[in-house]
Specification:
Oligomer: single chain
CATH architecture: 3-Layer(aba) Sandwich
Shape: globular
Number of helices: 11
CATH class: Alpha Beta
Structural class: alpha/beta
CATH superfamily: Alpha/Beta hydrolase fold, catalytic domain
Helix content: 40-55%
CATH topology: Rossmann fold
Distance between the termini: 33 Å
Low-confidence stretches: none
Mean pLDDT: 96
Order of helices and strands: EEEHEHEHEHHHHHEHEHH
Number of domains: 1
Strand order of the largest sheet: 1-2-4-3-5-6-7-8
Number of strands: 8
């Protein structure tokens, strides 16, 4: 069951997986329209291996508060949530992972607090978004004219109806703040690369993606790994969410990287 913690004046929904013997701390940041439940397969596996794991619903998503602040959904604010939550729970030099849009948030959190993190893993993400910009621009226009319920029927129902997580996807969609959806869509379209700043922090980085990732260009992810002098791991028989498609292999790749540092 989620805990609720006041961060920047508003409650965020948090899930922590506690190990019996704690060897290190890990923070996992979900992507666009996602939630903390995106990690409920790998979270327990990591805890079994000794990692204390924190994940949460990004501000305005699923069970977290709909922000009333003017800058609540700005990238700096979302990145600050990651840092402040980690501090609140006493995480010490945690490993940071960002999935998809969460990778952009994680990159900003790493750049803004470079001494705070032990490492950064970028999972199915990139320095900026590029693959489906035209489609996303069209969706953003629709978001401004349809309610969340109407948009679900128009767009998400067809995508998610065959998923075993259909009920979760529908619930979190309807609970999420429509302003969060539009503002994070704009961030996907507008966020510029911070790879040069990230490289300057010298935080050990790791690039991972599923061999069938269809959301972020694989050549872009390969180039990002080169630019960061980062090892690259490709998860076989996985798409955009290796954490759900191949949780055991994803955990193996993560822990191999962390233990190598």
């Amino acid at each position: 069951m989620a805990a609720f913690v006041e961060i920047q004046g508003e409650n965020l929904a948090v899930e922590i997986y506690e190990p019996k013997v704690r060897i290190a701390d890990v923070v996992l940041v979900h992507g666009w329209t996602g939630s903390k439940e995106d990690f409920n397969l790998i979270g327990p596996l990591l805890a079994d291996l000794g990692y204390r794991v924190l994940t949460f619903d990004n501000r305005g998503q699923h069970e977290s508060a709909h922000s009333k602040r003017k800058d609540g959904y700005a990238m700096q604010s979302l990145a600050h949530d990651v840092i402040e939550l980690s501090t609140h729970f006493g995480f010490v030099k945690p490993h940071l992972l960002g999935h998809s849009f969460g990778g952009l948030i994680a990159q900003r959190a790493a750049v803004d607090a470079p001494d705070f993190w032990s490492s950064l893993t970028l999972l199915c993400t990139g320095p900026h978004y590029s693959l489906k910009k035209t489609e996303l621009e069209a969706l953003l226009h629709l978001m401004q004219t349809l309610t969340m319920a109407e948009f679900w029927i128009f767009y998400k129902e067809e995508i998610d109806k065959s998923s075993p997580r259909y009920e979760l996807f529908k619930k979190r969609w309807h609970m999420s703040d429509p302003t969060s959806l539009t503002e994070t869509s704009r961030l996907l379209l507008e966020t510029q690369s911070v790879i040069s700043k990230l490289r300057a922090t010298k935080i050990p980085a790791h690039v991972m993606y599923g061999e069938n990732d269809d959301a972020w260009p694989m050549p872009m992810q390969d180039q990002m790994a080169k630019d960061l002098s980062a090892p690259r791991t490709i998860i076989k028989d996985a798409g955009h969410c290796p954490n759900e498609d191949q949780p055991e292999e994803t955990v193996r790749a993560l822990t191999n990287f962390w233990s190598s540092l």
